[in-house]
Amino acid sequence: MQRAETLAATSVAVAITVLGLKTVAWWMTDSVALFADALESVVNVAAACAALVAIRYASMPADANHPYGHHKAEYFSAVLEGALILVAAFIILNEAWLSWNNPRTPELPLAAVAVAVLATALNAGWSWVLFRRGRALQSPALVADARHLLADVVTSTGAIAGLTLAMATGMLWLDPLLAAVTAVNILFSGVRLMRESVGGLMDEAMPPETMTRIREVLARAAEGAIEAHDIRARRAGRIAFVEFHLVVPGAMPVEDAHVICDRIEAALRAELGEATITIHVEPEGKAKHRGVVVL
Prior knowledge:
Blueprint: H1 2-29, H2 32-58, H3 73-101, H4 110-136, H5 140-169, H6 174-201, H7 208-221, E1 227-236, E2 239-248, H8 254-272, E3 275-283, E4 292-293
Helix pairs in contact: 1-2, 1-4, 2-3, 2-5, 2-6, 3-5, 3-6, 4-5, 5-6, 7-8
Keywords: Cell membrane, Membrane, Transmembrane, Transmembrane helix, Transport
Transmembrane segments: 7-28, 34-55, 75-98, 110-129, 149-171, 177-194
Family: Belongs to the cation diffusion facilitator (CDF) transporter (TC 2.A.4) family.
């Protein structure tokens, strides 16, 4: 979890740097698209701070009030980040509408374009790092931050393109139009992020492909048992929770059944990473003849 905290803290520094660069670019051009882009970076700073706080809280060990740990805290951060994306999109739409009704001629010094491109490149590079490391660490907060930054990259690219086209063609309405188009794009990104994060808070089942892998592990690792049924699995942050009933021969000693359970737990952790596994052992009379038949 220390690695996740380091990444989150770096995200705060990157967000502040990008905000400074975008503010300079807007000040040099007076472009509504770049102004909206800078406003979104204010949201990025707040979102990065929220992700850092959530990751630190999620790393706290289980206690009497939270016996299953604090892992879901990262989902709250991701929901907040999705909401902030929506706020940023509506702010951009409002600014685009005002500029559409009152068009103004922006300036386009080469230095401003260079600053805007640098800010966009920094966001793009860091979003790639967060996607890769966030998925590896199974951190919803880091993945949410990566998606937020990717939405910002789209917004920035649209803002730069809109300003460039407006100045090249003299069609000033292109500046607010492309700002509005990019706002709609990040609206969809925010809605998707919130849906996925709420799914985590609601203990949504793991994806079908993951459940298939779990069943395959049970079929291989439960040698000596008869079947496994009532299999359920969910994820809370980086922790997987798996539970099921394991049917064994009625005459099997408890020690032998325990050895099978240990072998299954080791195999599931090798497949899923950090996991809390609950196995209810039953005699063969409880077999339901469905679920996973042990090979």
